[in-house]
Amino acid sequence: MDVAALLTSAGINIAICVVLLSLYSILRKQPGNVSVYFTRRLVSEPVKRSDLFCFERFVPSASWIMRAWRVTDEEILAVGGVDAVVFMRIVVFSIRVFTIAAMICIFLVLPVNYYGQEEMQHKRFHAESLEVFTIGNVKEGSKWLWTHCLALYVISCSACVLLYFEYKSITKMRLAHITGSPPSPSHFTVLVRGIPWSPDHSYSDSVEKFFSTYYPASYVSHQMVYRSGTVDKLMKDAEKMCRMLKTIEPQCKEISMPCCLCGGPTHSFKVLNNEAGSAKRKTSIDGLQPTQREKERPAAFVFFRTRYAAVVAAQVLQSSNPMLWVTQLAPEPHDVYWSNLSIPYKQVWLRKIATLLGAIVFMFVFLVPVTFVQGLTQLDQLSHTFPFLKGILKQKFMNQLVTGYLPSVILMIFLYAVPPTMMLFSTMEGNVSHSERKKSACVKVIYFTIWNVFFVNVLSGSVIRQLSVFTSVRDIPTQLAKAVPTQATFFTTYVLSSGWASLSCEVIQLFALLCNMFRKLILRNKEEPSNYALTFPYHTEIPRLLLFGLIGFTCSVMAPLILPFLLVYFFLAFLVYRNQVRFRLITCPFAFFQSNNSQFHF
User: Fold this and answer.
1) Which of these, 116, 177, 401, 566, could form a disulfide with 137 (CB 3.0-4.6 Å)?
2) Cβ neighbours of residue 31 under 8 Å, at least 6 residues apart?
3) Residue 89 phi, psi dihedral angles, 5° rounding
4) Percent of the chain having pLDDT more than 90?
5) How confident is the prediction for the chain on average, in pLDDT?
6) How far is Cα 523 from Cα 260, in angstroms, rounded to an integer?
7) CA atoms within 13 A on the CB side of 431
8) Which residues is 221 bridged to in the sheet?
9) What one-character DSSP code corresponds to residue 433?
């Protein structure tokens, strides 16, 4: 890849970012998009909507950037909790470290790499290959290699010092948050799973007998987990719809506006009050319900008098059989994932092993698109494999597009399927809380991206190169030393497409925007939704940050040209994520599950 191909990729991604950010600055001013871009404000206070035409609403502006810049850590802590603050501290830490790395590597290492071959005749700048800016261009045994060692030690020491102060600050903040937060019911509650079955007693009697015997002074009561059958779910859904219809009944009027689907006039719903009929149906349905004992599941919430007693009961092994009487601190009420509480605890380990094997198989299946993407960066091998592409690839713009922009975009499209798949695996594991499920998915996505996006891309510049690496095991260090600098050019374009463009898509909230337009233009529903449950996508954003951090630390000395693009990404991430946390997330106890920084204990 040459400099012209890199500039082509940068130009395309800069144009995409400018268009999307300008479109966001216009869409956020429209009254109909309040529920998309100002969700927290819509919930906390009534928003006055003005449908009057104003020319300023249709002019792009950068006011949201200044507002995001002025957001403080105290405001983020009040809105999103400790997890949101720590996430933003990761971005700030990355900016500081890579600023130091950029100043050292751009002015010290980059000239050494560029003039590493004394007898080499350089081309014009736009036609220069990107490999001349890497350590691979330095002559073996060069006396200037001390600059690379010096830069590496300075960057490593700076990262360690900054990391020490970050951990010290976050530890104090977390301790202050824990000691200053009011008591929560989950602090006094323990979740018990694996309750043994007895033909003489119900699960409820077994729990009461067990904890009354071993914790007589601190045990208060318990609440069993019951199985929800199909009839129960249907009745709950019917009651929910009935409540919704009753709330909208006084406001519903016949609308003369034609429907978008059929063209006819729309009419309001009419709730029929037939209590006698509903009572008869309820009586007939009750006969189909199982007894209370049959609906009990081997799981319960046990309540204690003090937090100390709850912590002791959660940490102590309750039985010689590790599959019976398994205890843990209960999650927050809104954090509980109720459908997984009915899973027998003996199945949890089998589910975790099965999902682990499934994730590993998915990793190896993903080798196919990654190898194909890396094949696009090797034009010689691509034209040799597909001779009919020689005429197309001879065109200058197509050459730059295929080598500089297309590979990273194809890889990014394939990677969009990874977070939902890993979230499905984490759900099948049997996690009992939404935060545990998201944390498990986050760990899986981290391992997946580091393996497939980093190591596989390094080792598989093409199928032939990949086979040569694995057939000569003794030459693996040599192959890695040669492969990493050459693949740094691909990582540079990947930062552009997966970093800059993804942040622009994150701030514009394309999916939420389309749903809002469908609800208002097609369904003709002018009322704003009454219930919100917005949470931050930790399982997608944390792996992306860590991956870019790994790429930056690996390529900063070997290919310093990647550092300016990384710095732009982290500065843009700083503004986008602060804007999203401050104006979109909702002030509620489960916005970030209030895990007190447990999301980041990897």
Assistant:
1) 116
2) 49, 50, 51
3) -70, -30
4) 23
5) 77
6) 8
7) 18
8) 303
9) B
Within 10 angstroms of residue 81's Cβ, the number of other Cβ atoms is 26
| R_g over Cα of the chain | 29
CA atoms within 13 A on the CB side of 159: 15
The 3-state DSSP class for residue 28 equals: coil
**Coil, helix or strand for 437?**
helix
Rounded Cα gap, residues 94 and 542, in angstroms:
12
| Mean pLDDT confidence for 524-528 | 69
Chain-centroid distance, C-alpha 88: 14
121-146: average pLDDT: 76
d(Cα 596, Cα 158) in Å, to the nearest integer? Answer: 27
C-alpha–C-alpha distance, residues 435 and 337, integer Å:
9
Six-digit token string for 392:
């197309």
Q: Could you give the CA distance from residue 378 to residue 389 in angstroms, rounded to a whole number?
A: 13
**CA 380 and chain centroid, separation:** 37
Residue 524 zone, left/alpha/beta (φ > 0; ψ -120 to 50; rest): left
Q: How far apart, in whole angstroms, are the C-alpha atoms of residue 133 and residue 561?
A: 7
Which pLDDT band holds residue 489 (cuts at 50, 70, 90)?
A: confident
Chain mean position to CA 368: 24
User: Which residues, 6 or more positions from 217, have their beta carbon under 8 angstroms from its beta carbon?
Assistant: 305
Nearest to 501 by CA among 569, 404, 561, 400: 569
pLDDT, mean of residues 72-84: 84
Give the separation between CA 299 and CA 196, rounded to whole angstroms.
Answer: 10
| Contact of 138 with 120, CB cutoff 8 Å | no
